[in-house]
Amino acid sequence: MNYSPVNTIWVLLGAALVFFMQAGFAMCEAGFTRAKNSGNILMKNLMDFCIGTPLYWIFGYGIMFGAGTALFGWIDPFILKDYSHILPPGVPLWAYAIFQTVFCATSATIVSGAMAERTRFSAYCLYSAAISLFIYPVSGHWIWGGGWLAQMGFHDFAGSTAVHMVGGVCALIGARMLGPRIGKYGKDGKPRAILGHNLSIAALGVFILWFCWFGFNGASTVGMDSDSLLSAASIVFFNTNLSAALATLTTMFFTWLRYGKPDVSMTFNASLAGLVGITAGCDAVSPFGAAVIGLCCGFAIVLSVEFFDKIARIDDPVGAISVHGVCGALGTILTGFFATGVSTMKGVFYGGGLSFLLVQCAGVISTIAWTAVVITIVFTMIRKTIGLRADASEEVMGLDRSEHGLPTAYAGIAMLPDDTFSQDSSTASASMSYQGTASPEKNKEKAPDSPVYTRIQIICRPSALEGLKNAMNKIGITGMTVTNVMGYGTQKGTPEYYRGTPVEVTLLPKVQVDIVVSKVPVREVIETACAVLHTGHIGDGKIFVYDVENVVRVRTGEEGYDALQSD
Fold this sequence. Notes:
Elements: H1 5-32, H2 38-65, H3 93-114, H4 121-144, H5 148-152, H6 160-178, H7 199-218, H8 227-259, H9 264-278, H10 287-311, H11 320-338, H12 355-385, H13 392-397, H14 399-404, E1 434-435, E2 453-460, H15 465-474, E3 479-487, E4 496-498, E5 501-503, E6 508-517, H16 522-533, E7 542-548
Antiparallel strand pairs: 1-3, 2-6, 2-7, 3-6, 4-5
């Protein structure tokens, strides 16, 4: 076979750029989530590629591109059969194989952000294997491998449906089955904002993805050795950039009007939404069509994020369902309206009638059905065997420590304390001090004849805080101060390792609860706290008791017993 150096280099360059998208996804997901889970996020994005690569080599590529039936390729371990029927002109088999491998990894990594901060790492690895092994390859065969959708004329140039929507549907099912993060919804069902810890990192991820998308879409021409391919790549680059820019502008102004200020994280999401939306038809629409697709995605991303967050109550920390699932489907369908007929059938607005639009809709619906059914089975099997969701205490502590033994992904950098909410909306933030609400005038309690004031300091695990607070409230404690601290006892922390080397002393995250009592017996407070905190394992905590000479309420000037009462 005569290979084209230009085409081969173009495909390999595109593969390298699409691979680098893993860094963009890792940065976005880490920035939009909390610092205590950053290491876990980075690990999952790395494993998506490393798990998917050998599995796609062993089975996925054959299933996707084998000349089998309209529904399924063939089983070809290690890519040993003849694929000349599907290879682009002048492109070697292994160049095309690595190009398709990185697309498979992109589809897999989309799910990481939607299921972030509460998924077991082992469960996520099994999911990643399943999508690379058969979920993505089967629907990919229908669309790109000569399957039944391709035969009908379904057009998805670079993967709005084949890559992004498949990942978005898996993200939707996974997030729904996991349930929301602890504290995401109050008792009244209203969502609470859980802020990402680093918008700078998230912004870097967006710019990396935008840059790499020129390879994702542009190199999907799989050639540059003719005038027609040069023209196609040029319009693909222009449309890709235009759609992303219009989507970003639309969301900025839309959120400005809707919320009173332009929303930063939502605008970042909009850039990706515009890129996802144009991916299906970037070669088939005019710049005007690309602008309209970007405009539609800019509105859709805001409304979709609000829908899943507020109405469906599906917790998606990074907006992956909306960006990839919703905008992937939307962009594919809009291609049925705006395709000019240059590289595919004509859309509705260019005299093509409804036939092409219906084919696009059929492709979206059938791919959603396949993906949703199979991923539901996969996640159900994982949940019933090794478990899908991390324990509540592990989630509160952070998956970096519980899943990887990583004290922090930001060693040497001071981080703000994490506000971990209880599942009961009636309790306050764990990082805030709180007091009762009764006024001194309404306080009918009589001071003891010889009041004694005692400070009780409790050091415990962060995961035990909510139970301790509730127990203290039940015995009449009307106020406490909660502080996030770090420390270790005689065991010098649990043994942890970094690059295989034991860390001699590890400062563990703890919570310090300070209570000053007069009326409530000190022994009752101690016994109640011990009953709540005791597990019998190292790290249950300690209780310190101090005498207090006096108490002064600054606002009212009250001293002693009166200063300790609720107001």
